[in-house]
Amino acid sequence: MRTTRRSILAATAALPALGLARPAIAQPEAVKIGMITTLSGPGAALGADIRDGFNLAVKNAGGRLGGVAVEVVVADDGLRPENGRAIAERMVRRERVQVLTGIVFSNVLLAVAPVVLPAATYVSANAGPSQLAGEGCHANYFNVAWQNDNLHEAVGQYMTQQGVRRAFILAPNYPAGRDALTGFKRFYKGEVVSETYTRLDQLDYAAELATIRNASPEAVYIFLPGGLGINFIKQYAAAGLRGRIPLYGPGFSFDQDVFPAVGEDALGCFNAAQWALDLPNPANRTFVETFEREYGRLPSLYASQGYDAANLIGSALAATRGDVSDRAAFAAALKRADFASVRGAFRFGNNNHPIQTIYMREVVRDGQGRIVNRTIGVAFENHQDAYAALCRLG
Amino acid sequence: MDPSLLLEQTLNGLTLGVMLFLLAAGLTLIFGVMDVINLAHGSLYMAGAFASAAVTARTGSFAAGVLAGIAVGAAFALVLELALIRRLYARAHLDQVLATFAVILIANETVKILFGPQPIFAAPPPALAGSVELLPGVPYPAYRLVIIAVGLLAALFLWWLIGRTRLGMLIRAGTTHRCMVQALGVNIEVLFAFVFAIGGALAGLAGAMAGPILAVQVGMGEQILILAFVVVVIGGLGSVRGAFLAALLVGLTDTMSRALLPSLMRDLLPPAAADQVAANLGSVAVYLLMAVVLAVRPRGLFPAHG
Amino acid sequence: MAEAQATARVGLDGVVALCGLCLLAAAPPVLEHLQADYLLPTLTRMLAYGLAAAALDLVLGYGGLVSFGHGAFLGTGAYVAGALLQHASRGTPVLAWPIMVPGSTEALVILPAAAAVAGILAFLIGAISLRTRGVHFIMITLAFAQLVYFLVLAVPEYGGTDGLMLSARWRLAGLPVRGDAPRYWIALVLLVLFLLAARRAMEARYGLALRGARQNERRLLALGYPVYAIRLLAFTASGACTGLAGALLADVAMFVSPDLLSWQRSGELIIMVVLGGQGTLIGPVVGAFTLLALEEELSALTEHWMLVLGPILLLCVLLFRRGIWGQVIGAAYPG
Fold it and tell me: Which residue from A97, A384, B61, B252 puts its CA 20 to 30 A from A145's CA?
């Protein structure tokens, strides 16, 4: 009886005290960085990679970013926009966190943006919804990864360059899937044999695979995030289509988070990304080497983005000497992108989204027999997203 | 559509159907005999998939992996029955829903801690990785044929177990005349535990067989659980025969709606609208099927409780 | 004696509820004083979920009908509010055919509209689902909710899985609603009004018939009660009020998330009801506050928060069968 009464008290009366028990600050001078990311459910691997990449950059710099001591506060959004928003409210309004990052999925980001952007700076390490790239762009919002359409556009461009005449394209039946195929078609000039939309919780792709075999296109392009992609890639290989019809996709369907699960079935697939394991720049070598030593696995695209986000924030902290309270000054420092990105050269466009080179990669076995991406070419140089012109930022 | 493609799509529908049956059979038995609604059935499936993938990776033997999947599924189910479900038999369905929902949370998090958040590797054995030419010019993945065969064997086994053995007689009696069975002095506790273990073993088998074609990851159970429930309800709660037919019906509906609707719609509508309509209809076909069946026959196709 | 006991029980129940209400009413100024007003949106969200859970309690606690599809109504309400606000800020009509429906930023239009659309949906789903019983009912409501979920996801205009980001907020009787406190008040007033109305209805002949149908359907039928219609009315009203809660959620978040429609959300509403105490109306509100507070606190504490939440829920089911509120007021466990 007494316990229940107490829980009611906890639920109603003591709500103002929500979470006061949490330790507040470690060191007075440490700059807090809020990381809202997905650490539970099917999307957890992506969030864990972003977090690990980010933490690695902090660790490599001795617990500092840009010479300023930082404290990374991590919270799990569970891939639920509402949870993300509640966490953001807590971080921004209670704990006065002024720099946030880490969100994996666009839906969470879109729910969080209205809370964060008026009062703090957000550096996106993954999600890049068009809503925040065009008219809805914001001076306090930076995306260090890509605008959502970028990688699809790159594959479309590359397939045009390669003279692929007939393509079969496939995505889940939801707006991001439609946007993906629209982005692809923006640069693909051949014939689209079929534009197929699948269910978002679809497990079995046999029906589509039979249709693909029947249509015998020159190439297949898929955008199937997470587990959907794994299902498709496995079944594509099992249906005997791998090696007969080349399979293309954006980098996020073909990276180190997926390879351990699909194994050889991914070999020979082509994909586009702004980063690759084998990019020869020194920053990338350090990143890949230290990541593998620290976590015992190869870094993924997501980890590279987390690492870059940390170093970008570090560059701005260095420029402002750790003062994150002046929003405009901090944004201006971020916009210079004065850091060594693991992808090589990159700068921000007017809408605070990257202008960058996008590489084509092929899935191969490396010298040690591991399944990795090898860079085979460049789809775009200095590519900017299609929404930048709508953004009124300077 | 030409006949060979139709044959292929039918086989595709059957694969999905028998996978669903393996899950639905356990669910429907557990419901029929014990009147328990077990949301954690998907967790049994996930446990089977992870155990099978891990053992296959360790031993290199797919058969060992499948056996491990079955064993882990059955063992998990037994533990669940003894530790938790046993206390919920007399409770309302609501309490069962809640308790097994909590089990899902615990199971997902435990698997994440044990195996990490990344999906793990599972592949068919090399001997089954290729395809078989069923008709000239129609190659079909051998592994999918094995899934169909395993599913049909499991159905046969259940038919024998329930229809031809003393145990099966008790199960049938337990489904229709629960009090009578207890009054006759049958050790109902052992019977219940056994039925739960059978259900768990089938779910574990489903997980093990699904590994090579589906992503083995945290949360995989919930994705398929809903479909399995649809099957159970269409088939009629407690009826294994109903679950079998409903599973095939759902598998075929799902596959055929995706295979046939796009071309059908293109004949009727302008192309852009046709794609959209076909995709949306395909998305909800299974649920529409369920709504229609239940609107006509509220107790499903083959209700077990008279 | 028994009567006196009953009055005493009602008294205790009323006193605790009144205390809770006073605390809730005092929250905005107190929080502002403590400089903790960042909690107001969270509290508003809890109130909205409390409304949804209490609405679900009508069918679940009183009617004995376990609806596993109330997420559909919650989401529908949110999307109706979102669509009206969205179209109003863009100056486009929500519907151009067969009748012209313009967008709106007026809460007095949005809230009734959300309730009405969710109510109509609940009427349609209920009309089919209520032909079934027990587990069939659980599953058919789940299936309909899935149907709604996938249909909404497929509409590109409303953002699909990205959800719908709102640029406009609603006005009340033409006046702009500024800050978090007024939103909190709107939610609190709606919740209290609902609880009062629902309590009245449940104590009236209608409520007795609804509860009677749960205990002995045949007897009620024999007495000439239209059991099906009684249940359909409860289901429709419940769906409408859940839709109202959805609209509140949309406005407080300035965002409509499709996961409001998901089966997990329907499951959470059930958990809130059972956790707080079914068949008590106030219990589900307590359950909503408790569950949301637990989730928020635990997820900030550890990445493995589900490993803590799971056992807590299990213990609640096994040990506190009457739910938190049931324990407090000592109400008999229904059913």
Answer: A97
- Are A97 and A34 contacting, i.e. CB atoms less than 8 angstroms apart? yes
Tokens of C89: 């800020």
Chains that touch B (3 or more CB pairs under 8 A): A, C
pLDDT in tens, B279-296: 777 778 888 898 888 878
Single pTM value for the model: 0.82
Kindly state which CATH superfamily the domain A1-146+275-348 is placed in. Answer: Response regulator (3.40.50.2300)
Strands A270-273, A191-198: pairing is: unpaired
Q: In this complex, do C136 and B84 lie within 8 Å of one another by their Cβ atoms?
A: no
| b/e burial code for range C269-300 (CB count within 10 A of at least 16 → b) | bbbbbbbbbbbbbbbbbbbbbbbbbbbbbbbb
Cα separation, B140 vs B15, whole angstroms: 12
List the structure tokens of C27.
């929250």
Task: Give me the CATH code for the A150-273 domain, please.
Answer: 3.40.50.2300
Token pair of A36, please? 């809202």
Share of chain B above pLDDT 90, in %: 38
The DSSP secondary-structure symbol of C62 reads I
Domain ranges of chain A: 1-146+275-348, 150-273
Q: What angle do CA B258, B260, B262 make, to 5 degrees?
A: 75
What is d(CA B41, CA B26) in angstroms, rounded to the nearest whole number? 8
Q: Are strands C164-165 and A191-198 parallel, antiparallel or unpaired?
A: unpaired
**The dihedral formed by the CA atoms of B266, B267, B268 and B271, expressed in degrees to the nearest 10:** 30
CA distance A135 to B78: 57
Cis peptide bond prior to A175, omega within 30° of 0: no
CB atoms within 10 A of CB A318: 17
Query: How far does the CA of residue B217 sit from the closest CA of chain A (Å)?
Result: 7
Cα distance between residue A224 and residue C8, in whole Å: 61
Answer with the residue of higher pLDDT: B121 or A70: A70
Q: A131-140, A318-327, B180-189: which has the minimum mean pLDDT?
A: B180-189
> Across the strands, what pairs with A363?
A373
Alpha carbons A111 and C255: distance in angstroms, whole number: 6
Domain boundaries, chain C: 9-329
Q: List beta partners, residue A101.
A: A35, A123
- Minimal Cβ distance to A107: which of C27, C161, C296: C161
Element of type H or E holding A64: strand A64-65
Give tens-digit pLDDT for B83-108: 999 888 888 888 888 899 899 999 99
Nearest CB to C257; choose among A81, A94, A131 = A81
B168 contact A CB<8A: no
Chain C residues near residue B276 by CB distance under 8 angstroms: 154
